[in-house]
Amino acid sequence: MLELSESNIHLNATATNKLQAIEMAASALEQAGNVEQGYLQGMLGREQQTSTFLGNGIAIPHGTLETRSMVKKTGVQVFQFPQGIEWEEGNIAYVVIGIAARSDEHLALLRQLTHVLGDEDTAAQLATLTDIEKFRAILLGESDAFSITEETLSLDIETQSLLTLTAINAGKLQQQSAVENSFVSEVVSNSALPLGKGLWVTDAVSGNVKNALAFSRAKTIFNHNGKAVKGVLTISAVNDQINETLARLLDDEVQNILLSGNTQQILTALNGGKVPVAAAQSEGQIATGAVIGTFTVRNEHGLHARPSAVLVNEVKKFTSKITVQNLTRETAPVSAKSLMKIVALGVTQGHRLRFVAEGDDAKQAIEALGKIIASGLGESVSAVPPTEPDTIEVSSEHAPQIHEENTGLPADAIEAVFMIRNEHGLHARPSAVLVNEVKKYNASVAVQNLDRDTQLVSAKSLMKIVALGVVKGHRLRFVASGEEAQQAIDGIGAVIENGLGEGRG
Asked: Deepest in the core among 143, 256, 405, 428, taking most CB within 10 A?
């Protein structure tokens, strides 16, 4: 993880040009003990090779391969220039992140900053902030406001297993320090809840550290327990700030975007923005006939700024829409015409990249990309052959496979059915009242929405209660077992009858 103290952040800085801004960053890195004297020449040399401007008002000057030996320890120095610095060809940088990194550590830093590099609104906010504590929190993704970032999305996964999608999500949440090991163990052993349209939801009672959501989507639809599976959402919840996001999961348009939208559309929808459904369906899915190329990167130092620029320049020669994803890191597809997004993929030697091209010159584009990657993107390549061969194929539809699983109930279970009379159904507040009631009893309690034909889920999970999509008039079936099973059923019936904190309907 990036270590960044407030002493590494310099707000309201002033520089007359790009050279002076880079000199300030190099001097700060040297004073902090990150680099030896002379590292500035490496930063200027890198800038001559290819611009380090990434877009959205952000530049990341850093040294060349030859000056890596001058790096004592990895670190960054962040300068904010509210008046803007012309970087190159009319691009204006407002935030300059000077990087000193040994080996390929700078790629890890960029992955951590992806939520800023890919978000115009966040980048614009950083350009003018005067609160250094808030600046640091936003830069590191530690802002109090709950939002979902690209790091927890995994699209077009090659799998026919709901468990695999759940495990990917759990791993993503753990990488974000949002959950503990106990969460991972519980979430992969619990049954998933079908949300509808091929979307499923999973969570765990234990090991939740902070609010977070991970979403993984399969490349092709398959079946589980006779129901379609396209994607899985895994939730870590610790307080009410996530409730609005949970409610969005029930929105028909949001579900459509999850099924077929691209990364940015999904982020926009989950974070409360408006995305046209038609646009999501046309841009998010791989059309039959699209050309797919999967290639191994052989460059010794991966895709740092210079080879990434060579790759982007090659992609821009073609009119086809071209996306790329890092299969090794299981990233979401991004535009292959964006230098910033290519660098943020964190590609090191041996990583597998999957390109998808759609358009009149799609085949020519993929073939050209395969050749230029094999030749090293302007750099020398490893003589060691890749473990998997490079491939080029044309996409086609695949038949779904069926996976079955049997579930049962305790022989001594007690059941009861109650109708919800709340005017607005079980939104976050009454759901929380219900969950708090259930948790009072030493009993295992499951619930299902009979009117939506859902499966039984834990009645101690706020997320799963909200995800049942209960509206006024729906009937809920509760199944309780254990020492206080009857008391639990009686208590649940009473609290529902009294309106779950909202009065009788």
From this structure: 256
Residue 436: CB atoms within 10 Å: 14
Among 62, 106, 224, 351, the active-site one is 62
199 closest CA partner among 257, 255, 262, 281? 255
Residues 187-240: tens digit of each pLDDT: 999 888 888 788 999 988 889 988 899 999 998 888 888 788 999 999 998 877
Q: Supply the pLDDT for residue 141.
A: 65
Alpha carbons 193 and 200: distance in angstroms, whole number? 5
Asked about 115 being catalytic, the answer comes back as no
- The answer to whether 427 is a known catalytic residue is yes
Query: Which residues share a beta bridge with 394?
Result: 291
Given the residues 106, 115, 224, 304, the one annotated as active site: 304
395-409: b or e for each residue (b if 16 or more CB lie within 10 Å)? beeeeeeeeeeeeee
E strand segments, 71-128: 75-88, 91-100
Order across the sheet with 475-481: list the strands: 414-419, 475-481, 444-449, 457-458
Asked whether residue 70 carries a pLDDT value surpassing 80, the answer given is yes
In what helix (H) or strand (E) does residue 278 lie, and over which residues does it extend?
A: helix 277-284
Angle between helix axes 263-270 and 252-260 (nearest 10 degrees) is 160
Q: Cβ neighbours of residue 314 under 8 Å, at least 6 residues apart?
A: 368, 369, 372
Question: Taking Cα atoms as reference points, which of 492, 474, 384 lies closest to residue 433?
Answer: 492
Catalytic residue among 115, 351, 427, 474: 427
Our answer to whether residue 62 is catalytic in this structure is yes
- Count of residues making up the chain: 505
User: CB of 269 within 8 A of CB of 255?
Assistant: no
> DSSP assignment, residue 131?
-
Question: What's the rounded Cα separation, in Å, for the pair 159 and 195?
Answer: 19
CB 263 within 8 A of CB 150: yes
**Model-level pTM greater than 0.85?**
no
pLDDT at 118: 59
Q: Contact, 77 vs 70, CB < 8 A?
A: no
DSSP category for residue 35: B
